[in-house]
């Protein structure tokens, strides 16, 4: 589609894919959406992006990134039938992280029918320069039907500038107050003072109005070239840290064909289990997992709790566990990993994103690489307490268990945990 043109779209669920070609020196990009009334959001809740991945109506959801053969896509799922009647426009935007869009090759936005996979509309953005954010397209209502328009409007002020332009309140770093000017020396009052006057009546102060906290745009994305981050430097060493694993499955597999070396499709539900090996400062070790109902505890050792067992992989739920960083001195190291419990014999064609959200400090996220081996267990992240620092290390390491060896024992051996394992069931 040329810039400024429009096309009708179905009101069924649509998959909006922001795509570009990865490579050395290419910055990351993020997809986002804003739901507008008269050109502005009604509240900060009408902004859907990596730190706020789902609209309250369920009409828009940020699904995350995947990298297939050097082509990266960041996906939004939009169900126009669920958009509230007051909403007139759904803006589809992109922001660059660590560079400008002049450094991002082959940037485009594709709108697909989510059920059929057919392309409904596509707009290729060309000629970008110093822009760090773009409105690539928009869905808008016209005579009771929805249309898509190719926009291509750039911003040099990044996601913050784009968001504030549409009425979003953005959390900005606090600045120190300016120094007070020097005060003059006190003046000696005269010996005779007038009689004190009664102070004027002070009207009662109304109670403060509670406002929603502003949107926080900061984040840390871990990559192969920048795989670790200090929670200490980020100010995220206290409170609860939530770890989320969400995934998308294009197909589901039963295993690897011995002659073809390719995965074989199957129809069972895929059940992934988020787990954590831990070692505490006193030398005690263990595992937190749904297998054997070893859900852990948040306010007593091991200070890790698994929320539950999910089969959908949705961003709003997925697999979650929480780490109590108020007890970080008691923690020596934690290895977060995921196993396939049933429904597949490999992570092939699984597109997963891991997000660690400290109560304080910026969220940390990363995507898993494409799986090319018959792996049933993947080490996700290693959290290490060095005594002076708390470090999160991206692992994204697929492991292949030997015959008769469990996924848990496999990841134990790979990281030298040295535990004894017995069979368990959910």
Compute the number of structural domains: 2
Q: What is the percent of helical residues?
A: under 10%
Query: In CATH's first tier, which class of the largest domain applies?
Result: Mainly Beta
**Any low-confidence stretches, pLDDT <50, length ≥5?**
173-180, 251-268, 311-316
- The total of beta strands comes to 26
Q: In CATH, what is the homologous superfamily of the largest domain? A: sav2460 like domains
Number of helices: 3
CATH topology call of the largest domain: Lipoxygenase-1
Alpha-beta classification: mainly beta
Shape: globular
| Largest sheet: spatial strand order | 12-24-23-14-21-20-19
Radius of gyration: 26 Å
Oligomer: single chain
Q: Averaging pLDDT over every residue, what do you get?
A: 84
Strand content: 35-45%
- Biggest pleated sheet: 7 strands, mixed
Element-level helix/strand string:
EEEEEEEEEEEHEEHEEEEEEEEEEEEEH
Distance between the termini: 51 Å
Named CATH architecture of the largest domain? Sandwich
Family: Belongs to the CAPAB/TerDEXZ family.
Protein name: Tellurium resistance
Domain TerD: 3-166
Biased composition (Pro residues): 179-194
Task: Describe the fold and architecture.
This protein has helices at residues 158-165, 231-234, 407-415; strands at 6-8, 13-21, 28-36, 47-48, 60-68, 71-79, 89-97, 108-113, 119-124, 133-142, 145-155, 220-221, 228-230, 240-249, 253-256, 263-265, 271-280, 285-288, 296-297, 304-306, 319-324, 331-342, 350-358, 364-367, 377-385, 390-399. The relative contact order is 0.13. It folds into two domains: 6-165, Sandwich (Lipoxygenase-1); 220-415, sav2460 like domains (Lipoxygenase-1, Sandwich). It is mainly beta. Strand 25 and strand 26 form a beta hairpin.
